[in-house]
Amino acid sequence: MESQKKILKVTIDSKIAGNKLIDVLKDDFELSNKMIKKFDKEKKIFVNSKNISLKSKLKENETVSVEIDCGINNIDPEKLLLCVIYEDDDLLIVDKPKNMVVHPTKNVLSGTLANAISNHQKINNQNYKIRFVNRLDMDTTGLLIIAKNSYSHQQLAKQMDEGILEKIYIVVVNGHLDSKEGVIEDSIDLNDDGIKRELSTFGKISKTKYKVIEEFNNVSVLEIKLLTGRTHQIRVHLSSFGNNIIGDTLYGKTADLIERQALHSHILRFIHPITKENMEIRSKLPDDMENLIKNLKN
């Protein structure tokens, strides 16, 4: 199957007439310099269906269009359970289950979320490169965004960098925190073992905002908002407070009531890359975390 294509269009009005094509691509399409160079080289930028110089000044009522190749998916499809929360021509948002790796690796070649998405494409006669906007650890459940084209991916990545895309988690931890809400700000770096992360003055600045939702029996349920997106950030920051996530064997210990870390990607808020609509997508707490909380209260 051929790759799908996404066409972006802008009609020049009196306000931007006289501007150079390159400026319209930057300001109105919000394309990065890298993307502009790529699309210009590939002859994917058109004014009234013709390729012209990026320095050309545009006239009122002219139509500028950019043809974006959505890429080719080369991941094998597998008939795996896939919970689709939202889908349109530009985005796919899924609810990832526990015990599932997001993307094939050297050690995990199949059974991943990407294999399930590839099968979803096959069933729906789609073909696009699978671009994950956010990532989740194997044992973390919840919401993941997949961009169906490079433009949507770039726009959402930019929103993450600027703090516009909000990622909110629910987590169950051991102990009570001194403050009911606050921000944990500590640098994180890779441990010498090449797997774990740890606090380090040589690491990348990392910020985690937390709020206590509920406390009982030396356990706390927290709402977490990531202000940066480092690997294992929530797990490292909370364990550094002495409040390791229940069931997190890497930064804490095993738990009798749950078989994985009690961490769930609960809410995503962002601006749709194409429609510019304010989006809020929610995922309910999975059964194992609901049962964990219920049992810990008793």
TrEMBL record:
It comes from the Archaea. GO terms for molecular function: pseudouridine synthase activity; RNA binding. Residues 90-240 form the Pseudouridine synthase RsuA/RluA-like domain. The keyword RNA-binding does not apply. PROSITE patterns: PSI_RLU. Belongs to the pseudouridine synthase RluA family. It holds the Pfam family PseudoU_synth_2. InterPro entries: PsdUridine_synth_cat_dom_sf, PsdUridine_synth_RluA-like_CS, PsdUridine_synth_RluC/D, PsdUridine_synth_RsuA/RluA, RluA_PseudoU_synthase. This is Pseudouridine synthase, RluA family. GO terms for biological process: enzyme-directed rRNA pseudouridine synthesis. Gene3D superfamilies: Pseudouridine synthase (3.30.2350.10). NCBIfam families: rluA_subfam. Keywords: Isomerase.
